[in-house]
Amino acid sequence: LEDQFAKSQKMQAIGNLAGGIAHDFNNVLTIITASVDFLLLNHRAGDPSFQDLLLIKQSANRAASLVRQLLAYSRRQTMRPKMLNLTDVIADMHLLLKRISGDLVKLERHHARDLWPVMADIGQFEQVITNLVQNARDAMPEGGTITISTRNVPEAEIKRLGYVEMTEGDFALVEVADTGGGMPDKVAERIFEPFFTTKEIGKGTGLGLSMVYGIVKQSGGFIFVDSVVGKGTSFRIFLPRHFPSEAALAKVEAGPAVLSA
Ligand code: ADP
């Protein structure tokens, strides 16, 4: 228990540091991008400096994307939470996820139809799933199976599972499991830290899972990883069940309007 406490304090300290840097860096980037845009207006494609300016602009865009991931980790990103059914969101992502997994990987889905709703930002949740599927694919260069499942986990079961960080309430669970190479404990302990990667330079930034962690935490949820070397890895995301207000429910009964709480 003490271990977990120390770990979450460490994660928070890294988050504060990363968030502070990202925030200031973002201001600098805004100036670079605006200045380059201005210069590009005064240059034509054939001009000698045009290619250099484009390169600056592309690099600034890439830096901005890294900064966004860091801001998500440190929970300084603005969220627009809506009431979501995660089964539906994942079903809608099926084609995209198939494309990410590639031809060698089989993508399976097991979904609870009556999954409890949660409050989350749909764009951010899609980023979470996309990241987990990308990592799963990377862990299976020779192919394998990715299984995405959802189900309701009532409070009584949470207690039985014994996740010490979670104490009360009902949760909707999303699990992304792969049959890849897995990871040793030494790696698993550090995967949520920003910039921690075991991938080659240029292949991984080490920001994917830290962003996932930040988004899940900001949504009031929990994430756990189980991994066995040579067998595979499974990520479990628990998001708190949302109880819609009567007004929101009345709106659903009245017609097919999209629910937002
Ligand atoms: P990146 O993918 O850029 O390395 P992440 O934060 O997404 O950054 O992941 C950090 C590290 O966690 C990876 O480099 C890898 O070592 C490990 N990892 C993540 N997902 C898996 C997985 N499904 N199977 C095995 N290792 C994984």
Automatic annotation (TrEMBL):
List each copy of the Histidine kinase domain by range. 20-243
Where in this chain does the entry annotate a coiled-coil region? none
Superkingdom of this entry's organism? Answer: Bacteria
Can you name this protein? Answer: histidine kinase
Organismal lineage = Bacteria, Pseudomonadati, Pseudomonadota, Alphaproteobacteria, Hyphomicrobiales
